Amino acid sequence: MYLSIQYLRALAAIMVVIAHSSHKATIYNIDLLSSFKIGGSGVDLFFIISGFIMCLTVDRNRQSFTSFMKARVVRIAPLYWILTCVALTIYLINPDLVNSSSTRPTSIFSSFTLIPNGNPYLINNAWTLSYEFFFYLVFAFFLFSKNNQKLFTSITLIILVIIGLVFPPVDPKWVLKPTTFITNPVLIEFVMGIVAYKIITNKMLSTKTAIITTLIAIAIMITNNFYSSLWIHTLGHIIVYGIPMFLLFIGFVSLESKIPKINLLYQLGMSSYALYLVHPFIITGVTIVMRKLGIINIGPLYVIAMIIGSAIAGFLCYKLIEMPIDRFLKAKIKKQPATA
Questions:
Q1: pTM score > 0.85 for this model?
Q2: Is residue 340 assigned to a domain?
């Protein structure tokens, strides 16, 4: 695994955590994080990383549709289902603690299947996993073509987005609306990951160009933080946030050989999936505890507790739950006899 990608995964996860912590803090009139407005673009970076990693995965080990999808389910689903069961338990005990800000009813069926029906999931930010698995399905469908698989995947996703632009859905701002889901411009970011794979594996950027590209991406994101307010689920968002994240990715990953190992960032990157899933529980838990203690108005303490608490919980979840289950399931799969 690329060190640079682990660092970018850490960045993406922390950006999302800060965004959600900021939203929660503003409810209690704490605006310490209000000036940080680009946290949601961590999701854009995650999608680009996913496109790259899937290309890397199939090029290192050619797989069938079934084996590829099985590996994806084994890697993604167990931890998600465990935490969804936790969320379901909380929802059954106190529904107000789950999706309290949503006007739509929570969908238990969609929460476990990741099949969108227009309603939020028990783990609200798990909508991104629906897009991940849709990308996996399209990506795996073309595995029969060794030479053109990435090209066919990219063309298919681009065509779907074009269809959505030509025939826009009635409610384009809702990412899980069935008519919006398979044509959402966010699919372009998986294509960006595929393009990034071609650029990086073919060493198309020199060290100097990679540094300049990375700095340009950072400059654009800083500018966006203060001057951009485009709606998060429009094509404009993909242009304004997706493109600089693409530039950041190809620039930074092209510098892989120059990047030292920083264990804290590495571990944060390794645990980024667990952090992404578990942090809503921690943010809510910290809020409840600090509210009961009467210290929630201590803004710095509240914000730090949400962010640091999420990072620690994500790491523990990764070490104690995600990885042991992943090793167990992979060992079971290896023991299964091969089928003709």
A1: yes
A2: no
